[in-house]
Design goal:
Layout (H helix, E strand, L loop, with lengths): L1 E5 L4 E5 L9 E6 L9 H10 L12 E5 L8 H9 L4 E2 L2 E2 L54 E5 L8 H5 L5 E3 L6 E3 L9 H5 L5 E4 L4 E4 L4 H4 L6 H4 L6 E6 L10 H8 L4 E2 L10 E3 L7 H8 L3 H9 L5 H8 L10 E5 L2 E5 L5 E6 L10 E2 L4 E2 L5
Parallel strand pairs: 3-14
Antiparallel strand pairs: 1-2, 3-12, 4-7, 5-6, 8-9, 10-11, 13-14, 15-16, 16-17, 18-19
Bound molecules: iron/sulfur cluster (SF4) (2 copies).
One iron/sulfur cluster binds next to helix 3.
Length: 376
């Protein structure tokens, strides 16, 4: 085992391979506060990449509702059972990651879902955390009863569990963008990767007898475009770009700004130790204990910052840029009431008004001698 630096858990950790960060690391930010669970992203991904024989049950992108939805069934419950309660000391994780404290014969603490576990992608959908009685309402935050939609893709982790587990070295991380891919020629379908991924984002193709996973729409990324799940998102909850390496921060890069400067977007289950590269803005109405076990110790500060967005023109401006352009944004600038996204060379690719203009109609139109009211 090598000793590698994992900034998300605030310490070094054991990993089967030495630290070898890519030249650039792709990253996403998802905002579950805005996700409506419409599954447009799921279908955009499926109709692009997994419409073939043997891929019928594959959803590289899925949206489940928490706390009772899962795909595959119980994936996060299994992870929590395997790891136990997370022990944080400030920003430092004191417990063991999935790579640590193992017998010499094992490289990853994992488990393999049953075939049937993949057959119920919308199990638990929209089930709330506790029964709701007639007449209940929830004026305060967090709500006493809640659910939220959690969109999930492969995290294109810095220290992937799938790579650590594969005995064939058939999975690799591209140095040019950090995208994690399965080499279909080398894969023999042992499914060690499916066992080793804590997020259960590697899936077995029963036709080819190999494993497959989200490819981050690399043909689009190579052209400077954001992946399909991002550009098709109805709720504009997603942004994809590149995150700076640990110790470096570019405050004009929208991903760095939200993850490193404002710390409003957090990795999911960082205690697993894979350093995932999808970052989530915690849903402000959901139970805090639940969110802390899922997104770590930064949850409360992130929610305080997010809840104040309307008084924070820069933060509001960056959120306005979500879903506003197909091109990858490398930089942003807020110019008064306009948010501007730029490409790698600083050329402008989009400008969006931070606040949409609105008009309030008078109740009675003096000119037409008519009442203005909705009759739908
Ligand atoms: S989320 Fe899973 S499949 Fe994706 S890189 Fe991380 S360990 Fe591998
Ligand atoms: S398309 Fe966007 S809003 Fe709809 S389910 Fe997917 S992430 Fe949520």
């Amino acid at each position: 085992m090598a000793e590698v630096n994992n900034w998300q858990i605030g310490r070094t950790m054991e990993y089967p391979y030495p630290e070898n960060r890519p030249r650039r690391q792709i990253a996403w930010i998802f905002d579950p506060n805005k996700c409506i669970g419409c599954q447009t992203c799921t279908i955009a991904c499926k109709s692009t990449w997994t419409w073939g024989t043997g891929q019928e049950y594959m959803l590289w992108n899925n949206v489940e509702s928490k706390p009772f939805g899962f795909f595959p069934v119980g994936w996060d419950v299994e992870l929590m059972n395997a790891m136990g309660p997370a022990k944080w000391n400030g920003g430092r994780y004191e417990g063991e990651t999935i790579f640590e404290g193992l017998p010499p014969t094992e490289r990853v603490r994992g488990w393999l879902p049953d075939e049937e576990d993949w057959a119920f992608p919308n199990i638990g959908e929209d089930e709330v955390s506790a029964p709701v009685k007639q007449g209940d309402y929830f004026p305060d935050l967090p709500h006493g009863t809640w659910f939220y939609h959690l969109a999930r893709i492969c995290n294109h982790c810095t220290y992937p569990g799938c790579i650590a587990a594969c005995p064939r070295q058939a999975i690799y991380k591209r140095p040019e963008d950090g995208i994690v891919l399965v080499d279909q020629e080398r894969c023999r379908g042992y499914q060690e990767c499916a066992q080793g991924c804590p997020y259960k984002k590697v899936m077995f193709n029963n036709n080819t007898r190999t494993t497959e996973k989200c490819i981050a729409c690399f043909p689009k990324v190579e052209q400077g475009l954001q992946p399909q799940c991002v550009t098709s998102c109805i709720g504009r909850i997603r942004l994809a770009g590149f995150i700076s390496p640990p110790g470096q921060v570019n405050p004009q890069n929208p991903i760095d700004y939200l993850v490193k400067v404002r710390k409003v977007a957090l990795p999911m289950y960082p205690q697993a130790g894979t350093e995932p590269n999808v970052y989530y803005i915690p849903p402000i109405h959901a139970g805090r204990e639940y969110l802390r076990q899922m997104f770590g110790p930064g949850v409360d500060d992130a929610i305080t910052t997010y809840a104040n967005t309307k008084n924070d023109p820069e933060l509001l401006g960056v959120f306005t840029l979500f879903g506003s352009a197909e091109r990858i944004m490398h930089r942003f600038r807020i110019d008064g009431e306009i948010a501007i996204g730029m490409d790698e060379n600083g050329a402008e690719i989009v400008r969006v008004p931070v606040r949409e203009p609105s008009w309030v109609r008078t109740y009675f139109d003096e000119v037409r001698q008519a009442y203005n009211h909705n009759i739908t």
